Amino acid sequence: AQLRYSVPEDREPGSSVGDLAKDLGVDVRSLAARNLRLVSEGGQRHFQVDLAAGVLLLDSRLDREALCGQSLTCSLHLQLVMENPLQLHRVEVDVLDVNDNAPQFPKPEVVLEITEVANPGTRLPLEVAEDPDMGSNSISTYELSPSEHFALSINVRGDGVKMPEIVLEKALDREKVAVHHLTLTALDGGNPVKSGTAKVTIHVLDANDNPPVCDPPISTVYLEENVPVGTLVTKLNVTDLDEGPNGDVEYSFKISNNAPGKFTNLFSLDPRTGEIRTKGLLDYEESSAYEIAVRARDKGSPAMEGHCHLRVELIDVNDNSPEIVLTSLSSPVLEDATPGTVIALIGVKDSDSGDNGQVRLQIAKELPFKLVSSFKEHFSLVTSGPLDREKTSGYNITVRAVDSGSPQRATQKTFYLRIADVNDNAPNFSSPFDTAHVQENALPGTSVFSVSASDPDEGSNAKLSYSILHNGMQDVPISTYFRIDQDNGTIYTVRALDYEQDKVFQVPVEVKDAGSPALSSTAVVHVFVLDENDNAPTIVYPSVPKGSAFHQTIPALAEPGYLVTKIVAVDADSGHNAWLSYQLQEDAEALPFQVERRSGEIRVAQALRESEDPHRLVVEVRDNGTPSLSASVVLVISPEENSVQDFSKSLDLPKSSPKDTNLTLYLIISLVSISLVSCVMFAVVAARCL
């Protein structure tokens, strides 16, 4: 917003200038919380803000003449800055002129000379009175005390200044009156009217009776700024009707107290030719016009002089580049900032005028930002699209200011805007499924597998912690078997695992970041328990107590190849550890029996002798593990003559027990699980390759 107030220059300090809270539409109670502060563009502090009342107060007495000089308007520019949200308001205070200065002449007494042969109509220029006030309070008119010979004439020059001149109305006679005493009064247009006076003494001289005359007496010249030093401005056209020394004119600058010596530093005057040239660089931005008064004086006795007035108006040239001022910058900005969020407040200045001072701002179109004009020469940089820190963590924003001059002038300013992270990305495992293997009976604390996850966010939003979830698939919580290091994702065993009890585990792992709110994702690690040869073979038939022997009778006339019995054994291990082999511990050659190595069948190896004594056999069952484990059974085989060679009677094999059935089922489930996991892994790898 832009506010405008006015205040007379004679207002006392502490006076109210304007109701800021009301004009801004802001609750007075929120001004302190929003850190309302006042910034003066000129660097001087003339005002203050009453936060309790929400009004702008005058801090010190204003002097319009000291602040703005002879400018027609006098404005003080302020900036109000409020936070939460960040806002910038421009305040313009017009200082109104008060008629507090009376007109004053440069000198209290003016001495003039005039020849006695001067013709009626001869003009004698007078010093212009000064009044620091402006407008109607400035000088309005002049008055001259009554005189028989002289009257007052007032001319208005190009800048509106009234120039008094004394005009001779009646021929003079020096022998009658040699000196005339007059009073010149300057009146301003204030209410009440104020005035100033100067005494005018006119000496009537004898002799040279034709003064130099300028043609025209008042002229205007237009000149571009920055012309080279020595450029001819004009040549004065002055004539003097006298002859000889009385008509020989010399030129000189007439210094006025209104602008003492200013133009003499920039212009030179040839005293003989009347040529006026530049001797310094002219700058439109410093002054757009110069008033030059020239005195043309002849060499008569007494000398006579004429006065030329030249107004030099400068034509602006586009010689100043725009200036970019970064008033405020909110960095960093959150990546989830909504479109229209104010990022920066930018001001622009150009000392040139007209089109040369009209400036437009530009930024690169591909940036997710745009410029919005707040008010004259002030812009807001706002977001125009979504921000993503994970794609772009910051922007180098170049603001370019271009004026409308010909040729154009431009300048640019670059600043860096950092994008702050928001927890908008969940952690991501390198793979949703992983496979691990662990040896059964491994010591508690054995490292099984390390999962790995990543999070594109930063800081606490990317700080990850791992945990194991209870999936409800096992009767016993999975945490009783495994634990995970919450920092690095390494999975350890909690206790020794038994392959014969659990062959595979599904361990659901969750990774969670430390953002607010926290985001997470899960993965499953299939842990396969590797079998160890920790179970010795178990003889299920014949079943005899430990330390006892199994008695078996066979026909005394049993022929070689006769099936005596079959040793049946099982091993809770799997694979090679469960491959069993059967053998006799005693020398096979001494016994008429033999054992089938793989099947465990005991057969007659050679014909038996009549009345042969019972034979004692020790059958050993050994697995294929490393180290190998074994079990043995003692058989006592007794030949009997009355025994019939009947296989069904001689061999009573046991039926499969439920334990054997369960063991077979576990083996089948393990093979199926391994096959399924392998298929899933192949599918994941194929998908990543595609």
From TrEMBL:
It comes from the Eukaryota. Residues 6-105, 106-214, 215-324, 325-429, 430-539, 546-656 form the Cadherin domain. It holds the Pfam family Cadherin. Keywords: Calcium, Cell adhesion, Cell membrane, Glycoprotein, Membrane, Repeat, Signal, Transmembrane, Transmembrane helix. Gene3D superfamilies: Cadherins (2.60.40.60). SUPFAM superfamilies: Cadherin-like. The chain crosses the membrane at residues 663-687. One of its GO terms (biological process) is homophilic cell adhesion via plasma membrane adhesion molecules. InterPro entries: Cadherin-like_dom, Cadherin-like_sf, Cadherin_CS, Cadherin_N, Protocadherin/Cadherin-CA. It is a single-pass type I membrane protein. GO terms for cellular component: plasma membrane. GO terms for molecular function: calcium ion binding. It is found in: Cell membrane. This is Protocadherin gamma-C3. It comes from Chroicocephalus maculipennis.
